[in-house]
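Re: beginner question about structure tokens

> Can someone show what the tokenized structure looks like for a real chain? I only ever see the sequence side.

Sure, here's an example I had lying around. Input first:
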Amino acid sequence: MSRRLRFLATVILLLFAVVAAQSANLQFFRSKALDASPLNPRNSEASTNAPRGKIFAADGIVLADSVTTGKRQNVFRRVYPLGALTSGIVGFSSPTYGTWALEAEYNNYLSSHTQPAQSFEQLLAPTSAADSVTLTLNTALQRVAVAALAGRDGAVVVLDPSNGNILAMYSNPTYNPAPLTSSSYNVAKAAWTKDNKKNAEGFPPLGVVATQQTFPPGSTFKVVTTSAVVALQPQLLLKSYPVLTQTALPDTTKKLANFGFGSCGGTIAYMLPPSCDTGFALVGLDVGGPDMSKMADSFGYNEVPPIDLPGAVASNFPPAGYFTNHLPQLAYSAIGQENVRTSALMNALVAGAIGNGGVMMTPHLMNYVTGPDGTIIKRYKPTVWKTPLTAAQAGQIVPLMVDVALYGTAYGVFPTADDVAAKTGTAQVGNGAKNTDDWMIAFAPANHPTIAVAVVLPFQTVEKTGAIVAGPVIRCVVEGALAIQFGKPPPPDPTCPK
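And the corresponding structure tokens:
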């Protein structure tokens, strides 16, 4: 009997210890997370019984606001005047599903909270109110991106390479945030179910293609390969590679061919404008896995970009050790195929770093936060994320990308007067009838860029290329951005889909 009593007492003591440990876990270790959780009923009630702060675009247009419902419960409802145009960035505040995107990122500012005392009376009786957030986003340029994509799956990212400001970021598919803010559980649930369902290409509307999806970058990655030569093995700049239509790869009978079985070769200066696959595959083999991986990492591959938008994912380049036993893959990696993947945001940052003298700025959407009285209480300070190249090294690559636009694979995409540096990309992904991801990256004006752009349209037909598919889109965006910066409306362009 005594043995059984001791066993029972031990079990009871262990249960008390588990309860005490879980209590300590909830009270001390998880208290902040639970307090901030959108699933906390207190938070969902606060979001509807007190007005949230406004979200503004850089041009002063209201992107998110709170309006009264006339009800005793759920007194306020969040509204989004531009709807799907900015929902991928702004997100939503829902009584059922909490906060999303920037509504979540800056929830502590946007939700009603105790304000700093401005008087002795407020010190004794603190007041609560919400702050407002102003973004770097330009709504006119956002509309240009929407018109250019013309409903096709893909993404456009436009940023200022000098400070990391995101000027436009649009992804298809997207969603209407209005039903998600409904106080009706059934209405919100139906919208949540619909917006989380993947389309035929595997993209859910609630997922942001620009930051949450990665694709093989194709020949846009040759900018990184060229950087590896310039920064780490400059002697290869003068090496002349043979003129070939296809080239044999080491340790395999497989051969790598140029697009359309065209022939090309020469030095890197000759090979980048026509985007020579055979030549750059050999360049990658000459550079070697360690330096290729080192350069990719220096541009931010294999790290999540530190953008103030939840859900961003890392772009991927294999580690150096991988190529020891997979040497043929190094040739494909050097031309952005197969085991290399990047997001539209990452590719815009790569373009921006080349144009910005080798300095990659931290991407961001928040410009400043204002208190209830309009006083700026927080302003974003531009910071450097990566420095993959020196100014002199980046300066060697800029004219090569200018030649891409003037004489190479992007010839005819941009008017000469736009002074654009660019690189096209067409990645074969072997997905049946739809088997290329089509890219273009660019910055302008080439010598003193104020914009860097990346465009991706995934799963295009094999006959298409980055220049054919992404070219008209990026031309619209570049010309629109430059016009807006000069205080003019975006010019009408017959090559821009309407």
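Each token stands for a local structural state, so reading them left to right follows the chain. The CA atoms of residues 34 and 40 lie 7 Å apart.
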